[in-house]
Design goal:
This protein has 657 residues and is α/β, with parallel strands linked by helices. The protein has three domains: 261 residues, ANL, N-terminal domain (Rossmann fold, 3-Layer(aba) Sandwich), CATH 3.40.50.12780; 153 residues, no CATH class; 179 residues, 2-Layer Sandwich (GMP Synthetase, Chain A, domain 3). The protein is 39% helix and 22% strand. The chain contains 22 helices and 28 strands. It has a five-stranded parallel sheet with strand order 4-3-5-6-7, with helices on both faces. A five-stranded mixed sheet has the order 12-13-14-15-16. The chain has a five-stranded mixed sheet with strand order 24-25-26-28-27, sandwiched between helices. Helix 14 links the parallel strand 13 and strand 14.
Amino acid sequence: MSSEKNNNDKPVSLIRLVRRNAELYSKKPAYREKEFGIWQSWSWAQASTEIDNLSYGLLSLGIKQGDHVAILGRNRPYFYWAMVAIQAAGGVPVPIYQDSVADEVCYVLDHCKARFVFAENQEQVDKVLDIKDQLASLDSLIYLDSRGMRKYDKSNLHDYRAIQKQGADQPAKMKAELEKRIDAQTDDTTCAMLYTSGTTGRPKGVVLSNRNILVTAKASSEFDNLTVDDSVLAYLPMAWVGDFIFSIGQAIWTGFCVNCPESTDTMQHDLKEIGPSYFFAPPRYFESILTDVMIRMEDAGAFKQAMFRYFMAHAREVGGQILDGKASVGLVDRLKYSLGSAMIYGPLKNTAGMSNVRVGYTAGEAIGPEIFDFYRSLGINLKQLYGQTEASVFITQQPDGEVRSDTVGVPSPGVELKIADNGEVFYRSAGVFMEYFKNPKSTKETKDKDGWVATGDAGFIEDGSGHLRIIDRAKDVGKMKDGSLFAPKYVENKLKFFPNILEAVVFGNGRDTCTAFINIDLQAVGNWAERNNIAYSSYQELAGNETVIETIKSHIDEVNVDIASDNMLSGCQIHRFLILHKELDADDGELTRTRKVRRRIIEEKFNDLITALYNGDTEIFTTTEVTYEDGAKGSISATLRICDAVVNAPAKQRKAS
């Protein structure tokens, strides 16, 4: 990172960049937060003061260099300031997923031996207090919202703003100590420690340095021409590396504004109000917005439905080409598209809060090509990226003009790619993590001595274009009993394109046939039930409805036709399926906090259902333990119907006959 020095020829760090922004962009908005229905705003100069005062306050509390400090709460400017202040004072910020249950919080706090915890409110404070006896290293909690804690023992509880005020009153000696700690930082100083989602076991602490974060932030910002005039909505978990690179790394590097919604419930409305120019969302978000659109259209009159279908058909033909600046689109088609934009596309983008989006990204899971193309046809510059926590996010990105639904783009600036003999994707870059905290064995297994990192994903690089195509998780890709390829995620993503299907889990590795679990989308299916005057009292009751089962069967039959046309993956057609009696849930350990399927846990937990799918049973009675919102345990029982799907001959067999 020697090429990235500041004017004093000292290594770049978050705090130095914040101070640079306070000088260059003094009055420009740095952070906004909606609270009590009103948007609050802080300039870069104000944010720099807030961070410095909090840093002094942390020193007065006794933070030592190398101390781990956890952050537990939703996206708020105060917590973004805390992460910079912690690092400035020599500590290591460790954000935790705010919806983590006490056991998950306990694991992270104990694993990193956190001395301090920033907790947003009474709910988060209580989580930590409940497990405090198991945390020998924990000294103090710093809370932001004091409501409900008037009678709490404050001996180890500190008010966030009081810490800042105490910091502002510190003598010159304390301020000199802060500058000493900032000057001691190098390119290899830890910038943050972020925990993986833990799809296959306990989460691992990924140690990321100043170099990792800031070289990646610089390269990715330049790739998409991000500037101080851009803005982003920060609503995804702060513990996720994507939010860290977008809302801290890129934001501080470029100086653009970070906007925090009032709550998860108001996020969509707040997005529409802010109208950011830069936006990221996982595929599930884009799927849910499209589901809402389709539900509203089903409720619309015949004329509106006909107009929607007409203009969307035209958008699918030319929208993506116009977005990419292709000259092949004729004048008449452009005029028709402009009319569609005024009547359909523009209002849809406005409803979704994406009217001003100049660059949009999706990642984390593969997005259905139909969903991806839908947004691009509206004129939204939605692109895919491929990344990991261990890479400081960016491995590949899609350049403007080369955006496709079937690839994840070309190597990001400064990233090298290679494909192993077994098809696994490896990468190397300045963003590659330092190590897994207290886990040298896993570090060595993941990163070799030359800096190459194993992604765990199977894929290939296209000849000519240089684009990377991801097939599936390498550990999930297998063989059917007849030797044909088994790629469950490929099938699951096709199924999740249908608004009625929220989640799908496909089985078949080492077996004769593929089978599947389905979760229905309660919002979409519930809307259908209401329109048809079908009464239901729960997800379980709706999932067992005969018409719902037949509808899901029709979706699976349609997907099977599509899969049969792919000679390489035709063996992945689904032969039998069932609709689960409960939604897969992170609180029950079936999903990660980033909504990724934990296949091993699901296979163990629902082994009786999988056995029934392969035994030829037509129904099965089952009982499953569940976790309620208050953390209490319970169980639900149901008799599930098991259905056969229509399986088609592979395309090569049809041609031969």
